[in-house]
Request: fold
Amino acid sequence: MSNEPFKDLFKESEIFSNREMLSPHYIPHNLLFRDKQINEIVKYMTPSLRGERGRNLFIYGKTGTGKTSCMKLIVEKLRSLPVTKARISYINCRIYNSRYRVLYKIVSDYLPLYAKRGYGIVDIYERIINWVDEDGKVLVVVLDEIDVVKDLDDLIYTLTRANSDIKAGGITIVGISNRVSFKDSLDPRSLSTLYENELIFPSYNSNELATIIQDRVAGGFKNGVVDPAAVNLAAAIAAKDSGDARLALKIISKAGEIADENGGKKVTVQEVGEAAKVAEEEIAYELINTLPEHQKLIVYAVALLSIQGTKYKRLSNDGENYIFSGDVYSKYENIAQSMQKEPKSARWYRKYITDLDMQGIITTYESGKGIRGHTKLIKLAYPPEKIKNTIETGMAKEANG
Reply:
């Protein structure tokens, strides 16, 4: 085998200087336009940091509004404080997506030797209670993307009711979600135990996104490589779509990759235009994989009907093929039942359709009078084959553990 495929492996990029700074996972020391939200979170958490039982906090906002970055920055700074009676466990619920896994993560964070023994959920719960009781500490459990936990009712009930079993100290929940409406699906017994503050993160506007991109460009790209017009275009595209900083950064990063691969020396509006199409799809597929289970099944139903066709598929005013909402619900019911899952009611289905429309995964259209009277028509915003494959790959990964 020749060395030809590897000859450029260690060649220095003429575009990038530090690509890590363009990653959505990079947490800058200064989060632009989020001082107010950071101060609010710290204010709500202050009682817990003093060793008092604080109120639970729920943080909402669309994808890419800085919720996770702010929380991670706060957790990092609080852990460095020399004196605090609180212990913080930050939990990514995409990974730890059940009550057992969340409790196991808490034990792993602070009682790692105990965690290795393979105890059941009751033993782990009692060990956490005893550990909190030892010195009256307060455990702050940060649940990022809380709405993807499969048995969320059980988790909420367990964590909130734990305070009844703790003699000194307590447990406070900080939940982070992209959907304000996620609590609507909780069981009344879980809701009754919550006594919480709420904080909503607004989407970034075009000017804010341009400043954020420019801040990352200064460290992530070589000096003078990125045209200011390219920054403004990336910001405008992301602002129009959803005000998503992750999308804005992905666009400018992809634009840099395109310039690099083509041997260019500058990132211009042309590369940004090409990058936007790819970046938007990638973000959409990432979002689909993090949807709550039943919303994902609904999207899967739309994808299958789009591919297989349906008796009542019809054209909308814009000439696109849409599918009747009733057909989608019937298909969703069949899929859920085939997976031994209880389908959600028609009322919940309608709420989920609204959520999916707001997130830009589907588009909906209200029909006029027709063969079924007034009804909602649905179409995927992305290629159905890709959506189908994305969901099936995710399902296979979940099934394999």
Summary: The chain has 15 helices and nine strands. The domain at 35-200 is CATH 3.40.50.300 (Rossmann fold). The chain has three domains: 35-200, 204-289, 293-399. The chain has a mean pLDDT of 88.
